C-alpha cells in the first residue's frame, strides 16, 4: 500500500484513497449526520425567538409580572403607561407604537414560534428589536446587556432576520399548509445529486 494512502476494499478489488480523500469522506459522513439535526435546531430556535416576546407583551399591555422592575401607577392601565413610556422615548404617536409593539409581541411572536407567515413575522420582529436597540444606543446604555445596552436586542434582531430570510423551516405551519421551503429543499437535493453524479 502506498505511503499516505488508505486501503478501501470493495467487490471490485482493493482501491487506495489519499489522506485528503479519506478526510473528505469522514467530513461528508459527519456533515450528513449533523444535517439530520438541522430541522430540530431550527425549530427550537424559532420557537424560543417567537415565545420570548410574549412575557413582554403581557407585562406592557396587561400589567402581568408587576414586580419585575416596572413602576405602575394604580390609576392608569398598563397599556396607557406603556404608551406614555414610549412617548418619553420619543415615539409619536405613542399609542400607535404601543399598539404595534403589543401586536408584534402577542400575535406575531407566536406566529413565528408556530412557523406561520414566518418571513413576515421575522421581519416585523427584527424591526421591533432594532428599534429597541436604537433606543438603548441613544439612551447611552452602551453595548453590554448588564447595562441595558444594545447587545441583547441586537442579537435577537439578527435571529429574527434569519427567519425573515429563510422562513420557518421544514417543521413549520408554513411548510405544512403551503409547502413553503419544499421547492427550495428539493432544488438543493437535486443540485447535490447532480454534483455527485458528475464526480
Question: Can you put this structure into words, describing what you see?
Answer:
This protein has helices at 19-35, 38-51, 54-62, 78-88, 94-114, 118-138, 151-166, 173-178, 182-197, and strands at residues 5-10, 13-18. The chain is mainly α and 199 residues long. The chain has two domains: 1-36, no CATH class; 38-197, no CATH class. The protein has a two-stranded antiparallel sheet with strand order 1-2. It starts with a strand and ends with a helix. The model is unreliable at 4-13, 186-191 and 193-199 (pLDDT under 50).
**Principal-axis shape:** elongated
Helix content: 55-70%
- CA radius of gyration: 25 Å
What ranges have pLDDT less than 50 throughout 5 or more consecutive residues?
Answer: 4-13, 186-191, 193-199
Main-sheet strand order equals: 1-2
Q: Tell me the distance between the termini.
A: 24 Å
Oligomeric form of this entry? single chain
Order of helices and strands: EEHHHHHHHHH
What's the rounded overall pLDDT mean? 83
Number of strands: 2
Percent of residues in beta strands? 5-15%
Number of domains: 2
Specify the structural class: mainly alpha
Biggest sheet statistics: 2 strands, antiparallel
What is the tally of helical segments?
Answer: 9
Amino acid at each position: 500500500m502506498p505511503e499516505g494512502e488508505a486501503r478501501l476494499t470493495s467487490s471490485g478489488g482493493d482501491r487506495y484513497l489519499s489522506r485528503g480523500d479519506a478526510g473528505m469522506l469522514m467530513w461528508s459522513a459527519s456533515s450528513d449526520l449533523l444535517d439530520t439535526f438541522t430541522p430540530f435546531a431550527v425549530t427550537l430556535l424559532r420557537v424560543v425567538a417567537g415565545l420570548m416576546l410574549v412575557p413582554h407583551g403581557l407585562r406592557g399591555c396587561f400589567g402581568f409580572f408587576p414586580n419585575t422592575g416596572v413602576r405602575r401607577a394604580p390609576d392608569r392601565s398598563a397599556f396607557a403607561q406603556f404608551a406614555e413610556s414610549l412617548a418619553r422615548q420619543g415615539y409619536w404617536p405613542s399609542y400607535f407604537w404601543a399598539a404595534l409593539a403589543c401586536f408584534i409581541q402577542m400575535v406575531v411572536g407566536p406566529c413565528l414560534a408556530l412557523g406561520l407567515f414566518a418571513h413576515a413575522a421575522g421581519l416585523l420582529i427584527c424591526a421591533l428589536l432594532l428599534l429597541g436597540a436604537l433606543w438603548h444606543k441613544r439612551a447611552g446604555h452602551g453595548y453590554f446587556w448588564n447595562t441595558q445596552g444594545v447587545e441583547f436586542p441586537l442579537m435577537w434582531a439578527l435571529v429574527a432576520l434569519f427567519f425573515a430570510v429563510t422562513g420557518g423551516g421544514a417543521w413549520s405551519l408554513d411548510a405544512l399548509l403551503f409547502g413553503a421551503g419544499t421547492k427550495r429543499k428539493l432544488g438543493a437535493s437535486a443540485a447535490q445529486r447532480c454534483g455527485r453524479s458528475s464526480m
